[in-house]
Amino acid sequence: MTPMPRTPTSRPYHHGDLRAALLQSAERTLREKGAAALSLRELARATGVSHAAPGRHFKDKQALLDALALAGYERLNQALTAATADDPEADFEQRLTALARAYLGFAVENPELLELMFARKHEPDSSELLATAVDQSLGALTRTFARAQERGEIVQGDPERITLVAAASLHGLAALIACCALDAEEAMAGLDTHVHLLLQGLEPR
Questions:
Q1: Distance between CA 79 and CA 3 in Å, rounded?
Q2: CB 53 within 8 A of CB 25
Q3: Is residue 204 predicted with pLDDT exceeding 70?
Q4: Choice among 53-67, 75-89, 181-195 with the minimum mean pLDDT
Q5: Cβ distance 177 to 184 under 8 Å?
Q6: What's the per-residue H, E or C state across 137-168?
Q7: What is the DSSP letter of 5?
Q8: 3-state secondary structure of 49
Q9: Measured between alpha carbons, how far is 12 from 1 in angstroms, rounded to an integer?
Q10: How far is Cα 46 from Cα 42, in angstroms, rounded to an integer?
Q11: Taking a C-beta distance cutoff of 8 angstroms, is the pair 167, 144 a contact?
């Protein structure tokens, strides 16, 4: 008689690139249910591994949240870097609009992740890697303004202060979209005008 196959008593411990699989599953849960629904045990179940396996990569839920936020900043930074690649034919307003479009596009596609990214960066126990990634994302905007000052394209002044004003304006759009006060397509369609007003101001000339 052919022996019956043994039924495994536990889920397998190894899962190829387990860390990536867990992060993918965690981001899906974040989108669908929010950060409060995340747990390492539930992620293990959803990913098909033993409940102890996630501990190889994340010591606790906070470490998982940091890793999710870091992955988000890395993707955002890639988008910002691509948008700020110098185009010799583009003027400053066009370059800033490309940067704004990259940021707002990320925000529209990843509202829950962006909220987590901003929340975790203020936590005292957040990792140094996360702090560095935050600096890189803001740095892309700051460098854009600093180069524009060097070229005489905008007024002189503290580039970090100018960055704060621009970042607040762009994040304000993202927040309005997230709370359904502004349609995403409408915001993207009007982004050129938004950036133009940001650069030119409201005083008549």
A1: 55
A2: no
A3: yes
A4: 75-89
A5: yes
A6: HHHHHHHHHHHHHHCCCCCCCCHHHHHHHHHH
A7: P
A8: coil
A9: 28
A10: 6
A11: no
CA distance 131 to 133: 5
Residue 78 tokens read as 């890639």
Structure tokens at 38: 């995340």
The DSSP letter of residue 37 is G
147: tokens are 């180069």
- pLDDT tens, position by position, 135-174: 888 888 888 899 899 999 999 999 889 999 999 999 999 9
Residue type, 187: A
pLDDT over 60 (residue 9):
no
User: Residue-wise over 61-75: b if at least 16 C-beta within 10 A, else e?
Assistant: eebbbbbbbbbbbee
- pTM value? 0.82
How many degrees, rounded to 5, is the angle at CA 30 between CA 28 and CA 34?
A: 145
Token look-up 């999710």 returns 68
Cα 31 to chain centroid distance, Å, stands at 13
Quick one: which H or E segment has residue 67? helix 61-83
From the centroid of its chain, how far is CA 149?
27
pLDDT tens digit string along 106-129? Answer: 999 999 999 999 887 766 666 788
In angstroms, the Cα distances linking 199 to 87, 102, 142, 165, 196 are 19, 18, 15, 11, 5
> What six digits make up the tokens of 191?
């982004």
Position 61: which residue type?
Answer: K
